[in-house]
Design a protein that fits this description.
Blueprint (H helix, E strand, L loop, with lengths): L5 H15 L10 H11 E2 L10 H5 L2 E2 L2 E2 L4 E4 L2 E6 L6 E2 L13 E3 L4 E4 L13 E3 L4 E4 L13 E3 L4 E4 L13 E3 L4 E5 L2 H4 L21 E3 L13 H35 L4 H7 L4
Parallel strand pairs: 5-7, 6-8, 7-9, 8-10, 9-11, 10-12, 11-13, 12-14, 14-15
Antiparallel strand pairs: 1-6, 2-3, 4-5
Bound molecules: 2-acetamido-2-deoxy-beta-D-glucopyranose (NAG) (5 copies).
One 2-acetamido-2-deoxy-beta-D-glucopyranose binds next to loops.
């Protein structure tokens, strides 16, 4: 019998890593607690959430309708939360985990900061996670692998750091993955970079999903991508050293002019100065 292929060994290793993750507390379903705490953690300078009031939190859903901006309901439960581009600041409350039926969480294009709460991993129905274009910091939680239905992870244009968790490669339904323009580092996980099975050798996600992270490397990024000198850096160094030598030679000329001028301005010291002058 042939030994198992390399990726199979990797898979087993990753499964072990998943089992070692701290198990999240089973979140209690409570849309009211979820929404009121999400609201409390947000700053809303343009008052977009004007009807996120206590009365509306108490009964956020009426069958399939909601009275809260950005909330979509399904059968009396919060199903989608879409608050994109509302100039919201503040952080993402970990109580988001109590909206246990959440399928879409879109908080993109705001000014949110702080971490991605690892409590998101309790959202077992989550299919779409779009937190792009904010100022989120800290790592990408490996616990997201527990959201087995994730189709879309869009985290581009934030300030996320650390490496991309290998575990995310196990999300088989993932069709969009974008972590471009962050501060991520390390090797791109092979299970996100390469497809397996019959399509092995084809990229699973394009380089465009990974660009804009200075210390991230490996396929599908071009070799040495971001590690060697970029064209901009080379041009910069060229211009900088050109300018520096210009300044240096200008200074040298000035000094030389001064030194050669001095005998004329101080006729009394003529003899002394001319002794110091080098012979040309
Ligand atoms: C919200 O979920 C957390 C676990 O994530 C649980 O500890 C807490 O009791 C829940 N809150 C309510 C009010 O259901
Ligand atoms: C709450 O605000 C949204 C958007 O401004 C609006 O569509 C919705 O009808 C409002 N709901 C109520 C009950 O006023
Ligand atoms: C995430 O939201 C932004 C807008 O805020 C949008 O441009 C982008 O397409 C969304 N990502 C996905 C994968 O739909
Ligand atoms: C991933 O695919 C690229 C391009 O086909 C290939 O060069 C690389 O060796 C593959 N990596 C793995 C671990 O299979
Ligand atoms: C990668 O880019 C090619 C074209 O450049 C496109 O056809 C393909 O759909 C892209 N794949 C993904 C996973 O985005």
């Amino acid at each position: 019998m042939a030994p198992p292929p390399m990726w199979w060994v990797d898979l087993l290793l990753l499964l072990k890593l998943v089992l070692l993750l701290p198990a999240p507390a089973l979140a209690e379903s409570n849309d009211e607690v979820c929404l009121s705490n999400i609201r409390r953690a947000l700053k809303d300078p343009s008052n977009s959430l004007w009807n996120w009031t206590h009365v509306n939190f108490a009964a956020p859903c009426n069958g399939f309708t909601s009275y809260l901006q950005g909330v979509t309901c399904n059968n009396g439960r919060v199903y989608k939360l879409s608050l994109a581009g509302l100039a919201l600041a503040g952080g993402i409350s970990p109580f988001v985990a109590n909206c246990t039926n959440l399928q879409t969480l879109d908080l993109s294009s705001n000014q949110l900061d702080g971490p991605i709460p690892l409590e998101l991993s309790a959202l077992l129905n989550l299919a779409v996670l779009n937190l792009s274009s904010n100022q989120l910091t800290g790592p990408i939680p490996p616990q997201l692998v527990l959201c087995a239905y994730l189709n879309v992870i869009d985290l581009h244009s934030n300030l996320l750091s650390g490496s991309i968790p290998d575990q995310l490669g196990l999300l088989v339904r993932l069709s969009t993955f974008d972590v471009s323009y962050n501060q991520l580092d390390g090797l791109i996980p092979v299970l996100l970079a390469n497809r397996s099975g019959l399509a092995a050798g084809l990229p699973r996600f394009n380089a465009s999903s990974f660009v804009g992270n200075r210390d991230l490397y490996g396929y599908p990024l071009p070799p040495m991508g971001g590690r060697g000198l970029s064209v901009l850096a080379i041009v910069g160094i060229g211009l900088g050293s050109g300018l520096l030598s210009l300044v240096l030679s200008f200074t040298a000329v000035c000094i030389w002019l001064r030194v050669t001028e001095q005998p004329a301005t101080m006729p009394g010291d003529e003899g002394k100065i001319s002794n110091l002058m080098p012979d040309y």
